[in-house]
Amino acid sequence: MKTLVFATNNKHKLEEVRQITADWVNIVSLEEIDCQEEVPETADTLEGNALLKARYIKEHYGFDCFADDTGLEVEALNNAPGIYSARYAGPGHDARANMRKLLREMEGKENRKARFRTVIALILDDKEYLFDGIIHGVITAEKKGESGFGYDPIFMPDGYTQTFAELGDALKNRISHRALAVHKLAEFLSSLS
Ligand code: ITT
């Protein structure tokens, strides 16, 4: 089985990707390679940030690896918060404050369309590859559900009547932006062997 470092400090992402990839790749966390740094995310696109994170780990630790950068893009807000999703309400990763701000910005808006977009950057044998995954949905009027993380309680994917946080991890990990990107990564890796 292939072994890859997953360059993320987000333990929810790590858990999701481990569930999605279960039996075809051995995922090593940053903790396991003794990396405690906040990896820089200073680019202005998801692609750029995913590459920055992966390159940082390759350069400083020498491992083949991949990174995920994800944004929630809301149509009525000109695709905000986008690359600023993690710090929408200010520095830090306070999901409650971020959701509160987004719900406030959406008050009175008829167009509730939004999408989650994940870009995965893979560095393998000194080459770089990108894979993406998009899921369309709407921003709900209030938070609902307990599972998942981040904006999951206010995002309802198209074709469903519950938020990601109500639908639960198993369903989310079958249909999500991240699952779609991870499956592209999987196809690519299996095409090599
Ligand atoms: P790493 O950069 O260390 O991977 P991060 O949490 O900073 O972790 P991002 O830069 O990709 O990750 O930030 C995206 C933010 O968007 C993240 O903090 C979450 O709040 C939110 N987010 C990402 N994926 C999500 C998902 O599947 N469901 C809900 N919210 C998500």
SSE diagram, text form:
Layout: E1 2-6, H1 11-21, E2 25-28, H2 46-61, E3 65-74, E4 80-82, H3 95-105, E5 113-124, E6 127-139, E7 155-157, H4 164-167, H5 169-175, H6 177-192
Helix pairs in contact: 1-6, 5-6
Bound molecules: inosine 5'-triphosphate.
Characterization of the model:
By secondary structure, the chain is of the alpha/beta class. Helices cover 34% and strands 26% of the residues. It is built from 6 helices and 7 strands, in the order E-H-E-H-E-E-H-E-E-E-H-H-H. The chain has helices at 11-21, 46-61, 95-105, 164-167, 169-175, 177-192; strands at 2-6, 25-28, 65-74, 80-82, 113-124, 127-139, 155-157. Strands 1, 2, 3, 4, 5, 6 and 7 form a 7-stranded mixed β-sheet that branches. Helix 1 crosses helix 6 and helix 5 (169-175) packs across helix 6. The relative contact order is 0.16. The mean pLDDT is 96. The chain binds inosine 5'-triphosphate (ITT). Inosine 5'-triphosphate is lined by residues 8-10, 13, 41, 68-70, 85-86, 93, 95, 148-152, 176, 178.
